[in-house]
Write a structure and sequence with these properties.
Shape: elongated
Distance between the termini: 77 Å
Radius of gyration: 34 Å
Largest sheet: 8 strands, mixed
Strand content: 15-25%
Helix content: 40-55%
Low-confidence stretches: 207-212
């Protein structure tokens, strides 16, 4: 194995090592083949009933009907397999988009690859915020500190040293070695990968976590309960219809009576089991997540899609989420007018390779004032005082122009406390901070100290005695459209809370500019630190701005909001934000400026770090749940006429051969229902009022009393039209095939109209038809359904399937009855629109 110092592995070596060691995964992902998926689907109760019906047809000597049943069964299994394959492909694509990546050296060049593609011998770069993807030796490092608590249980970070350095050994753990699953909290390093996947130390103790079964989501549990309840009811009616058929054909031979009774029971059971529910849930959530990804919102955990519609509080960072994170130095203020000293000290306090937007803005301002980087960083950097969330300041010790300088910058509150100033000067500085902050500017204090020798350099910045140079005020304007999106949140019943490390006055100024409601006083990090959990529980009920907070405070804020019954979405980007993101109902990480650790802890990643994307995501989450509820209501409605037709036929004494629905007809209807659910209803746009509703209660059932009542009434009217037409045709002396054709044609046409009527709770069917005209996929589903109906009635297939051609007059009657059975609900929607319009007009007058 080649481990050349700076050229890395060659492509040929990587291929050979991947064959030898496999992917860098704790548990290799096993793909389910086509045959296995088909067998899994065929084992569902619905398909077992279908196969039983086919067997009974063969026993009765109806080989043609049995063969047709098997063909239909194969067709439905094929549709389900294709849907499953498309869903898996979508989920795998989402997984690939959110998979962790790492920078490696291969073939002598730096490149980004998926962490799963790493092999022993790879050279990888590690930096602050990265979750280390494999075990490896430290070849070189700069201030690398690693949190190894996931392995050792020790909360204290471990400082790493290069291979061969003194102090490399630390008991059973090595300080010149990094371990998979640990977090780089500071610094950078180059590692040589030694072990991957299950061979790592983390893999040896953590593979059982990867194998753990995922818990079912609340929606999945609800749909499972619904299907189970329907299955129990179906079993009861199976027995009831079986007995009814047995006694209705009392004069027939015993064997024939048994077979006919079982066949009638199977038909009803098939009609009553809504096996579409699990399909609806999987397809709608996965496709919803894919649509969100196209809108720059990447779902890492599918249950987050369920939770989006319930969010009641949105906790967001100010910088980069509400603002543009494009800082410029707007103003410099000095107590003595020496801007040149302020500029130079400000520049010396910045990192030499600045990545923070604020430091980049400061260095650009220095260049604009004629202070080049070559001059600024021409001296020797002796020591660094690192920035911490607790200190909120940092400093550099330079040997510059023949003297030892300490250049420091940070929050005015903290840095001014280290400066010796007269009371009048301190008051003038305080007034200036208030003025600048009130204008929405971010204020940074700058100070300097001159020392005689390196021996005088204090160990901590807090031990320094500094001279105040002045303030740099930076502007970071709000993002375009953020005010409108804030207003949209309030209209949707979502409270917005700003959590920032900035000054409270600055945060309040930005909040006013974007229309945020300040319902309570500003709470600072110091105030929060002094509060008990009980006090915080009360305070978070009305506070809209938390300022000067550190990441550890975010967890307390989230917990307090949740304890008050709120569903919390929290944004974060730093390493220390990970616990709060994990604990929030929806953790939202920044895709552009967020650390890998925060992205892995979050359920949602914003690829553009934009507040408007969060609002769009909440809207889409509501739309997805709305469409799931519409689909479930539709399935209930359309199953009612199928089930009642299968039930009443035997109870009315209609012979088994003349029943409106035989098992193969139920299968035919399932072929119509499945694509209608999973294709047409999933594509429906959001309702016009979706962001004027309060958040959904997470305990609210999927099938509410109102939805159930609506579905029952729609199902009963469709049943009345279809079964009534069928019975009337029989009484007029029509043969069973012609009567059945009328009943089933009404069911199919009513099904098409029902989708359009139920696609919106408010808009009329004409709006739905206008959308239909623009959507080629929906056009295709509807045209294929109508083509199938035409084939059933007017092709040679009508004989084997027990149908008959309908004359024009009967076809017209079928169309009229179908429309009447469904379009009555348009009156209900018209009344709802009228009532809502009256309410909105009343609100406007207020």
């Amino acid at each position: 194995m080649s481990t050349l110092a700076h050229t890395g592995l060659s492509t040929e070596e990587v291929i050979a090592l991947q064959r030898q060691y496999g992917k860098n995964e704790l548990v290799p992902q096993k793909k389910q083949g086509f045959a296995r998926k088909a067998l899994h689907i065929a084992a569902e109760p619905m398909f077992l009933l279908l196969l039983a019906a086919a067997v009974i047809y063969f026993i009765l000597g109806e080989a043609r009907d049995g063969a047709v049943m098997l063909i239909f069964v194969a067709g439905i299994i094929g549709i389900d397999v294709v849907q499953g394959w498309k869903t898996d492909r979508t989920l795998n694509a989402l997984k690939d988009l959110s998979a962790p990546r790492v920078k490696v050296i291969r073939d002598g060049a730096e490149t980004d690859i998926l962490s799963a593609e790493l092999v022993p011998g790879d050279l990888i770069f590690i930096q602050e915020g990265v979750k280390i993807p494999a075990d490896g030796t430290v070849l070189r490092c700069s201030d690398l500190r690693v949190d190894e608590s996931s392995l050792t249980g020790e909360a204290e970070g471990v400082w790493k040293v290069p291979e061969g350095s003194a102090g490399a050994s630390n008991g059973c753990w090595r300080n010149d070695y990094c371990y998979a699953g640990t977090l780089a909290t500071q610094g950078t390093a180059l590692l040589r990968v030694e072990r991957t996947g299950a061979a790592t130390e983390y893999g040896k103790i953590g593979s059982h976590v990867a194998r753990a079964r995922e818990e079912k989501t609340p929606l999945r549990r609800q749909t499972d309960r619904l299907v189970k309840l329907c299955a129990i009811i179906a079993a009861v009616f199976f027995v009831l219809v079986g007995f009814a058929t047995w006694f209705n054909i009392a004069g027939h031979p015993l064997w024939e009576r048994l077979i006919e009774s079982v066949l009638s029971g199977i038909t009803l059971a098939m009609a009553m089991i809504p096996e579409e529910f699990p399909v609806i849930l999987t397809v709608f959530l996965s496709m919803g997540a894919w649509r969100l990804a196209k809108k720059k919102s990447l779902v890492r955990r599918l249950p987050c899609v369920e939770t989006l519609g319930t969010v009641s509080v949105l906790c967001v960072d100010k910088t980069g989420t509400i603002t543009q994170n494009r800082m410029t130095v707007q103003e410099l203020w000095t107590p003595d007018g020496d801007e040149a000293l302020l500029c130079e000290t400000m520049g010396l306090a910045c990192e030499t390779e600045a990545y923070d937007p604020m430091e980049q803005a400061m260095l650009l301002h220095c260049e604009a004032k004629g202070i080049e980087k070559s001059h600024l960083f021409g001296g020797s950097l002796i020591f660094e005082y690192a920035f911490t969330n607790e200190l909120k300041m940092m400093g550099h010790v330079w040997r510059h122009d023949g003297e030892i300088l300490i250049a420091a910058k940070g929050s005015p509150e903290r840095l001014l406390s280290l400066c010796h100033m007269e009371e009048a000067a301190r008051k003038a500085a305080g007034d200036t901070v208030s003025r600048m902050s009130g204008e929405g500017l971010r204020v940074i204090a700058v100070a300097i100290a001159r020392l005689g020798s390196e021996a005088e350099v204090p160990a901590s910045l807090t031990d320094c005695s500094l001279t105040f140079c002045g303030f740099a005020a930076l502007a970071d304007p709000p993002r375009e459209g953020v005010a409108e999106n804030i207003a949209l949140c309030y209209a949707a019943g979502v409270r917005v809370v700003m959590i920032t490390g900035d000054n409270g006055i600055t945060a309040a100024s930005i909040a006013r500019r974007i229309g945020m409601r300040q319902t309570g006083p500003i709470v600072t990090g110091d105030m929060l630190e002094a509060m008990t959990d009980e006090e915080l529980l009360e305070r978070v009920k009305d506070v809209s701005i938390f300022s000067r907070v550190v990441p550890a405070h975010k967890m307390r804020i989230v917990q307090a909001l949740q304890a008050n019954g709120e569903i919390v979405a929290m944004t974060g980007d730093g390493v220390n934000d990970a616990p709060a993101l994990k604990h929030a109902d929806i953790g939202i990480a920044m895709g552009q400026r967020g650390s890998e650790v925060s992205r892995e802890a979050a359920g949602l990643i914003l690829m553009d770090d934009n507040f408007s994307t969060i609002v769009d995501t909440v809207r889409d989450g509501r739309r997805i749940f709305d469409n799931i509820r519409k689909a479930v209501g539709y399935v209930f409605a359309i199953h009612i006429p199928i089930a009642l037709s299968s039930l009443l036929g035997p109870l009315l004494g209609i012979s088994s051969g003349a029943l409106m629905l035989l098992p193969l007809h139920v299968v035919l209807l399932e072929l119509v229902i499945d694509p209608t659910c999973s294709v047409v209803l999933e594509r429906q746009p959001a309702e016009r009022d979706i962001m004027r509703r309060p958040p959904r209660n997470p305990k609210e059932p999927l099938l509410t009393a109102r939805t159930l009542l609506k579905s029952v009434l729609q199902g009963l009217t469709i049943f009345g039209a279809s079964f009534g037409a069928y019975v009337c045709a029989l009484r007029r002396g029509e043969n069973a095939s012609a009567a059945r054709s009328m009943g089933l044609a009404i069911l199919i046409l009513a099904n098409l109209l029902l989708v359009q009527v139920n696609s919106s709770d408010l808009d009329s069917i004409f709006s739905s038809l206008r959308r239909l005209a623009k959507d080629r996929v929906m056009w295709a589903v509807n045209l294929i359904t109508l083509a199938v109906l035409a084939l059933l009635l007017y092709s040679p297939l009508n004989g084997p399937l027990n149908f008959a051609a309908l004359p024009p007059a009967q076809l017209l009657a079928v169309a009229g009855l179908s429309a009447g059975a469904v379009l009555w609900y348009e009156i209900v929607k018209w009344r709802k629109r009228r009532k809502k319009k009256i309410i909105l007009n009343g609100e406007r007058r207020k």
